[in-house]
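Figure 6 in text form: structure in, sequence out.
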């Protein structure tokens, strides 16, 4: 693999830095540095960067870091975080909601509610960005991204623009079929007419439900494991005796056992090791192999 620090890049309008710690970009607040971190100004700036970057250099796209675990050795490649140029939200008279992939899900939900557009309130329960919701068919509280999806726009590794309809996205549970090399930059959702007060009340109910059932004010990473078909991951973890279990600086939440918590001084290896121990014991007891929902990247 080519060393990204030796690559000659054209003049870029966004922020570019080398050997940057990724810990601040993850809710766990752990992990090592990326060889390069680029914050493009807009889609054109991102395209210019991608065209100049050799395709054998790994890419990591950062959202809000709510489901990201960066290993302690850091990421050997280029990390990209979509900034203000990818956070626009526009709503038309037909309840079409056009948003940048870097926009926070909660902000999109609120903008739609204030415009009297129903159908997107579930985004309030997803602590990430629209790009992540597209990549994982993000869902919460009875709604999924696929339910309101119309189209998306993205760039490939050569900086070329591609457009995707619902069929091309190939949505399934916490998954889309678009190749990982595509970086989503924009999405269009279809809402419906609704009452702002009623939608905001629905969102407030989601907020309250999250705060009473999930450790939202801790250094966590959202749901650790995907729900196996016909099961709840948290129930399998709980039955295996892991509620409140600690390993190094990591702990299984006593409030919701599908959440891992990073305490002060925790390492990424503590979190991943705890997760693997959970998977092993659940498999032994139930015959079910839990799949990580948290994205783990980088070197040990």
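Output sequence:
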């Amino acid at each position: 693999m080519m060393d990204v620090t030796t690559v000659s890049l054209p003049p870029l309008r966004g922020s570019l830095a080398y050997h940057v710690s990724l810990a601040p970009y993850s809710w766990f607040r752990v992990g090592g540095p990326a060889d390069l971190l680029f914050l493009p100004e807009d889609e054109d700036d991102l395209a210019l960067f991608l065209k100049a970057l050799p395709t054998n250099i790994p890419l990591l796209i950062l959202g809000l870091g709510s489901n990201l675990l960066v290993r302690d050795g850091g990421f050997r490649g280029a990390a990209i975080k979509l900034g203000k140029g990818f956070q626009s939200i526009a709503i038309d008279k037909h309840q079409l909601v056009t948003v940048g992939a870097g926009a926070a899900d909660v902000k999109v939900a609120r903008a739609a509610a204030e415009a009297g557009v129903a159908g997107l309130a579930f985004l309030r329960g997803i602590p990430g960005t629209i790009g992540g919701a597209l990549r994982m068919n993000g869902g919460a509280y009875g709604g999924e991204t696929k339910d309101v999806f119309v189209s998306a726009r993205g760039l490939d590794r050569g900086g070329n623009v591609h457009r995707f309809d619902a069929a091309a996205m190939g949505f399934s549970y916490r998954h889309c079929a678009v190749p990982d090399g595509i970086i989503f930059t924009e999405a269009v959702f279809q809402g419906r007419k609704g009452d702002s007060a009623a939608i905001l009340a629905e969102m407030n109910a989601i907020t309250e439900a999250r705060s009473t059932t999930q450790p939202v004010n801790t250094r966590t990473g959202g749901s650790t494991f995907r729900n196996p078909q016909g099961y709840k991951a948290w129930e399998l973890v709980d039955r295996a005796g892991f509620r409140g279990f600690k390993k190094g600086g990591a702990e299984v939440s006593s409030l919701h056992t599908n959440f891992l918590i990073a305490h002060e001084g925790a390492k990424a290896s503590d979190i991943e090791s705890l997760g693997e121990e959970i998977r092993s014991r659940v498999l032994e007891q139930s015959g079910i192999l839990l799949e990580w929902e948290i994205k783990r990247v980088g070197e040990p």
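Caption detail: DSSP finds eight helices and 18 strands in the chain.
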